[in-house]
Structures are given as C-alpha cells and as structure tokens.
Amino acid sequence: MLKKIDHLGIAVKDLDAVRKFYTEFLELPDAGEEEVPEQKVRVAFFPIGETKIELLEPTSPESPIAKFLESKGEGIHHVSFAVDNITEALLKLKEKGIRLIDEVPRRGAHGAKIAFIHPKASSGVLIELCEHTEHEEA
Ligand code: ZN
C-alpha cells in the first residue's frame, strides 16, 4: 500500500530563515514554494534522494500549523507516505478500524491528493498519505 516516504513535514515560524539553513548550510536544492490556501500554509520543498523535506509556515492563526506551533513549538509535524491510490488506501484503513482525520482526500501542495491518519491511531505520529497526480508541477 505504501511506496516510500514521500516527505517529512516540519512546522516552522519563519520559512525564509529556515530555508537558508537547509539550502546554505545543509546544501539541499530548493524546489520552490507554494501557498496552500486549503490548509492556510506556505510550504517549501527541499529534495533529498527519493524523498523531500517540507517546511510549513502558517499564513493565518487559524492554520493547523499555527495551532501545532503554539502547543508544541517548531519541529517535525508529519511523515508523509506516498500511495498509488489514496481513496483505496483510506477505504482499507477505515475497514481496519483506523481512525482518520480525513476520510476524503483533500488538496495538498503541487495538486497532490493528501489525507491524514489520526495521530491517536499511530502512537502520536501524524501520518499523511499522499497521491501525486500526473499534472502536478515538478
Ligand atoms: Zn506534507
């Protein structure tokens, strides 16, 4: 069902400051940024091997990332697993009685379809499932 770790999502207060750390000090390529209004975040991706680091900065106090920063501070927010068919994966998990945050996929960065599994179902780790579409940009 899962193909690989698609990316690690890290919640940050100041995307531009943290971007400098990943590009200048860790020397990762900068794959650009995007605003995802559905989640009230600005995200930037830094590819590393088969996976990516995703930085998420809230664009509104209503953003789930703003709430995360408030309660836990900056740090790893979620682990994202790539799947071929997110609708099928969600159905399977639901059948197994796994608690989901999203029963229906929503839109993530680059037009990907994403859905979150409830962290109570996975020992405190917020897991994102991610299905890339053919039309998405790089
Ligand atoms: Zn993500």
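^ zinc ion complex. The CA atoms of residues 11 and 68 lie 8 Å apart. The first strand starts at residue 2 and ends at 11.
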